[in-house]
Design a protein that fits this description.
Elements: E1 5-12, H1 21-26, H2 28-40, E2 44-48, H3 49-55, E3 84-88, E4 100-102, E5 108-115, H4 121-129, E6 133-136, H5 144-155, E7 159-162, H6 166-174, E8 180-185, E9 210-217, E10 223-229
Parallel strand pairs: 1-7, 1-8, 2-3, 2-7, 3-5, 5-6
Antiparallel strand pairs: 4-5, 8-10, 9-10
């Protein structure tokens, strides 16, 4: 099997939180640099479906009109000149308004859904009509090794940025698929119970060792820590 070089990229508070008011309300400059770095280190970036549902799903879309559609559960390969936004969506949670996501401002990303045969026929038919690329990587649960192999072979993606959330990050760590960790630290304490960089579903410890590579001081009192796979 093949796989892209996987870089985990996260913006956190000093106390390791990956969400909170410190992201949008206090450090726009660091947030802008995060988005620039994401595109510099990857040809595709992706998140779990929970994150995409919160930020990108259009819940006004009604897929019931596709109810009686017949699907063949074959990969829908659509090559693009734009970066790919990859959604790990095993059951079909996220309703994309279009096959292109404009994010951040003025940046076009081709939507690519990684799913399973657990996704409903109407959801697959909806993706196909919208000309949204999708691939299957398992029957009920996404097999990350299969998913990355298909990203590499079918879409020529050699560099992939994993950008959360905590659960999908933990699954990548569990499978030893992360080659590099890039943590941008904003100069704020959050103090909430929001998620940290990596959290297992069952709450069990997941210990992986990485080797320190580099630290960079950023503008606005931020830091970038880079660790490489042992």
């Amino acid at each position: 099997m093949f796989k892209p070089y996987v870089s985990l990229l996260m913006l956190t508070s000093i106390d390791g939180k990956i969400d909170g008011s410190f992201i949008d309300d206090y450090n726009q400059e660091l947030g802008d640099y995060y988005e620039e770095l994401k595109l510099e280190i990857s040809e595709a970036w992706g998140n779990g479906s929970s994150t995409h549902k919160i930020y990108f799903s259009d819940e006004t879309i009604d897929i019931s009109k596709y109810k009686n559609s017949k699907v063949d559960y074959e990969d829908n390969i659509i090559k693009s000149e734009y970066p790919y936004v990859v959604s790990f969506d095993s059951t079909g949670k996220v309703k994309w308004k279009d096959n292109l996501l404009i994010y951040p401002e003025n940046i076009k990303n081709q939507v690519l859904v990684i799913t399973t045969k657990k996704a409903s026929p109407e959801y697959i038919a909806y993706l196909k009509e919208k000309k949204i690329a999708y691939i299957f990587a398992g029957d009920e649960k996404i097999d990350l090794n299969i998913a990355l192999d298909k990203l590499y072979r079918l879409f020529d993606i050699k560099k992939f940025a994993l950008t959360g959330g905590a659960t999908i990050n933990a699954e990548f760590f569990r499978e030893n698929l992360v080659d590099e960790i890039n943590v941008m630290i904003a100069p704020f304490i959050d103090g909430s119970k929001n998620a940290t960089i990596s959290e297992t579903v069952d709450g069990k410890s997941l210990t992986k060792e990485f080797k320190f590579s580099e630290v960079k001081k950023l503008k606005n009192d931020g830091l970038l820590l880079i660790y490489k796979k042992q």
